[in-house]
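Fold this sequence, please.
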Amino acid sequence: MSTEPRIEPRLTPGLLAALGFVAMAGSLATDLYLPAFPSLQRDFEVSAATVQLTLTAFLVGAASGQFVVGTVSDALGRRRTLLVALTLFAAAGFGAALAGSIEAVIALRFAQGVFGSAGAALARAIVADLAEREHATRGISIVIAMMGLGPVFGSPLGALLAEWGGWRLALAGLATIATAMVVVTALAIPESLPQERRHPARIGPLVGNLARLGRDGTFLGYALSYAFTYGAIIIYIGSSSFIVQNAFGHSALAYSAAFSAGSLCFVAGAMLNARLARRVGPETALRGSHLLALAAAGTLLVLALTESLSFAVWVPLTCVFSAGIAGGMSNATALALARARFAAGAGSAALGVLQYIVGAVVIPLRGLWGDETAVPAVVGMVAGILIAATAATAARRRDQR
């Protein structure tokens, strides 16, 4: 038996780039696929609502997958779990591209959601395994920044593939990217959870980890802060096209440009947070991020209520809001997982489940009072940040006690 000491992997720039790439699995599986909806509807001659079920199935799969994959990785290790999950993610994608019925597409999209959720869940867990506090915040900020790039190139690439070869080529393109994620995992992502830190591969201990986290008020506070910060930006994303095109009367091209600007500011905010958190600490950086997002959303709300909101003001303020959101999500994630280092997979799974639950609840809010006003959206954005900031404050005070 070898007595050589185990070489502990480090969060190098190359590893962070690899983690950021695989963490894009979930966002690419939606953003790259959405432009293919009309082609899918035409080929199978089904209603738009039926086509929408392919997205719903993916989201339901992703919510359940985060719970299962993240928790199981605490027993089996991160790398092996990630390799298996991403391989099945790619296989489900190729299967969906060859599907002969809409029912098969829906089922395979559910499978894609389950296995694709491993990308973000295990990327967070690996960072938590290898770093603490400011270093973990920096790593998670970089991973979240790369995840923010998904919408920037995912939707245009999906539109191009759908135009060339319809929905089948779009799904095949997604599966090809998933295959590249498997290769990157095999070549560039080491095992971050040594054998001695793993939990027994039995239901009881794994569920017990989740129960322990559920009793930790500090973890729950930061987890809720993360989830409601995410909920705030989901309200913005779900409402932005209606606001730009219906309320402001601008074209789809103008909306695309405004949305891309916000996405790039999200990436910039996460990268800036990576530097800021190392200097002032994640708690202070989290407060600053929430104040930045709240200032932007609050200004939007005042302008919307006074009917003074215009497209020229909307774009820069939503850019500032997106940058604040990126910092808020990064810091809250790092602080939550710092409480879950004994079972970072379960902790990351809990974050993902809360994220999807809050997202599912808040998305319908954009329809309140119709699609001709920005008021309900910005009310939701402000409310989301206020709840997130309150939860973070409660977590911080509990931790200090």
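Residues 1-5 have pLDDT under 50 and may be disordered. The first helix runs from residue 13 to 23.
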